[in-house]
Amino acid sequence: AVARFEQGTLDEHLKEIPKQEQVVPFSNMILRDAAMEWLIVRDQLIQALGHPSFKKMIDIAARATKGVILPHRNGTHDEIMNKFRTQLMNLKETLNVSFLLPPSLSISFIYHGRVGQ
Hints:
- By secondary structure, the chain is mainly alpha-helical.
- The protein has helices at 28-41, 52-62, 73-95, and strands spanning 98-100, 108-110.
- A two-stranded antiparallel ribbon has the order 1-2.
- The N and C termini lie far apart (113 Å).
- The model has no long low-confidence stretch (mean pLDDT 79).
C-alpha cells in the first residue's frame, strides 16, 4: 500500500498584522522643521513660537512616550465653550452681577450695587 501525503497550507493559521503608526524619535531639527511648517501652513506670526502657552503645549507633548492624539475640531470647540461659560459663571459670582447670554454669546452685565462701593 502506498501512503499518500499531501502538504497542507498555512493560510488558515496566518493573520495579517495591522500597520502601526511609526513614531519618529525626537530631534531638535525635526521639531524646528515641524514648527516652521506649522507657522507657514497656519499663517502664524513667528512670535507664536515664543509664546508661553505654545511652549507649555510642547513641554506637555514632550512627555508623551507613544506620540500624542490631538483633539478633534468639534470636541475642542465644545470644550472651549464650556470653559468660557464656566469662566462667566465664576465672574458673575465674583462680581455679584447678573448677565444675559444670548445665543450670539455677546455679554451684557447688570450691576447690583452702588457706584463707588
